[in-house]
Amino acid sequence: MKYMRKKNVFRRRRLTSSVRKRITSYYTESEQEELISAAATLGVSLSSFIASAALNEARKIKPRQRS
After folding, report:
1. From the centroid of its chain, how far is CA 17?
2. Residue 51: CB atoms within 10 Å
3. pLDDT value at position 21?
4. What phi, psi does 3 have (nearest 5°)?
5. CA 20 to CA 30: how far, in whole Å?
6. Helix axes 29-42, 46-61, angle to 10 degrees
7. Separation in Å, CA 8 to CA 14, 17, 25, 31, 53
8. HEC profile for 1-67?
9. What contacts 56, CB < 8 A, 6 or more positions away?
10. What pLDDT shows up at residue 46?
């Protein structure tokens, strides 16, 4: 039996050569609960969940140029 890898699976981000900068965002209480629940379901931190989701959306709008 072959195991297929799920598409768009959130994985822990490895920050090897990144510049760490803080980005602040604001949510209503119900939005925050929804985000926390979704992150917990995937087994990732809220910060990682939001960063991955934001990058995915940004790449849909303007895909990275490949070398």
Report:
1. 18
2. 16
3. 78
4. -100, 125
5. 28
6. 90
7. 16, 23, 23, 22, 10
8. CCCCCCCCCCCCCCCCCCCCCCCCCCCCHHHHHHHHHHHHHHCCCHHHHHHHHHHHHHHHHCCCCCC
9. 8
10. 93
Q: Count Cβ atoms within 10 A of the Cβ of residue 24 and give its class: 0-12 exposed, 13-18 middle, 19 or more buried.
A: exposed
For residue 26, give both structure tokens: 């604001």
pTM of the model: 0.63
pLDDT digits (tens, 9 = 90+) for 9-60: 556 556 566 667 788 889 999 999 999 999 999 999 999 999 999 989 988 8
| Residue 52 tokens, joined | 């991955």
- Using CA atoms, how far apart are residues 9 and 25, in angstroms rounded to an integer? 23
